[in-house]
Amino acid sequence: MENNKKYNLIIIGLIGLVALMIYQNVKFKKEMEFLNSHVSNMELNLNNGMNNLSYTILNQVENLINEQQNMVSEYKSTYNSVDAQKGIVKSLVEFSLKQSDADSKVYLNVSTQNNPNGLDFECGSANGFSYACETELSYKDNYILNIYQKDPAGSYKKLNSDSYPHHIKSDFENRINLTESGTSTNNERTDYSFKLRNKTFGEQSFEINSVIVKAFYEGREVYSKDVTSYNIVNSEARDKMNVMIASGQIDSTAIPEIEYSEISTDDNGDEYGNYMVSILHADTGAPVENIKYPEYSFKVMITLHNGDVYEY
Asked: Are 181 and 277 in contact (CB under 8 A)?
């Protein structure tokens, strides 16, 4: 009996030892897998870091080389006018050169995907450094512009490192844009606001004649207003004030009254407007039930001086 007891204890001890060894082996295996995964992640992060650093360095070197090779600075292009009958846009391209050869002539090359050779326009300069070039191009294409110098022997040298895009077709087809439109509503009214931009190409007939906002409820027109003269000229200042009010920096009484004017125009002759209309539910007859407010749909009708009408 005593021997059986000892034998059983030995068996139990061996089983416990084997179980401990199995447990330690499993634990060791998991730790090795964790270490391998950790090392792999470290290698991956290190490789990504090295690749990013390499890309950054190469990009900086490339930019530096391009900047050293680029002889053009202060480049800009503006639209002067449009001949709608001929489908032609007149543009003015202006730029400066870091250095110039008095015996050479400077040309602007204008190309397209279908015509890679393009057209050359000679550029004029009063001082040998600041140049201007007038172009007449069809508004049915987008263009790529490059600047060349031609020496007396007839050899061409490219002066810009990167080509300049001239998106006449895209600008012409999308010359009127409505942006940042949205609504806010409560139990009394719905406010509808939007911004618009009109690229006039320097043509008076492409300027905005009227801006009309219409509101619809369940397919029925319930509101119409001509907002042409209600461009909010101090909207940026009011937006900043609202942010400061929300953060508790200033009191709500400090916000200025809305200032209205005709549509704004920038130095290129392009027009910008910022508008907001308020629709009273009581005026439209739309029901207000508890916290369920009426939902309106809006239409903005923009008419140009030439009679063209755009609806958004």
From this structure: no
CA dist 140 and 275 (Å) reads: 32
Element (H, E) at 11: helix 2-69
Identify the pLDDT of residue 290: 79
Give the sheet arrangement for strand 130-138, strand by strand.
72-83, 88-97, 130-138, 124-125
| Percent composition of the chain: helix, strand, coil (DSSP 3-state, to 5) | 30, 40, 30
For residue 289, what is the DSSP state? Answer: B
d(CA 258, CA 278): 13
Instruction: Answer for the pair 87, 139: CB distance below 8 angstroms, yes or no.
Output: yes
Q: Are 215 and 183 in contact (CB under 8 A)?
A: no
Tell me the one-letter amino acid at 9: L
**DSSP category for residue 254:** G
- Whole-angstrom Cα Rg for the chain: 35
Indicate the pLDDT class of residue 112, thresholds 50, 70 and 90: very high
What DSSP state is assigned to residue 52?
A: H
CA nearest neighbour of 238 among 253, 261, 255, 262: 255
* pLDDT tens per residue across span 176-211: 999 889 999 999 999 999 999 999 998 999 999 999
Look at residue 42 in the predicted model and tell me its pLDDT.
74
Instruction: Tell me how far apart the alpha carbons of residues 190 and 222 are, in angstroms, rounded to a whole number.
Output: 12
Does residue 100 surpass a pLDDT of 60? yes
Q: How many CB atoms lie within 10 A of CB 312?
A: 13
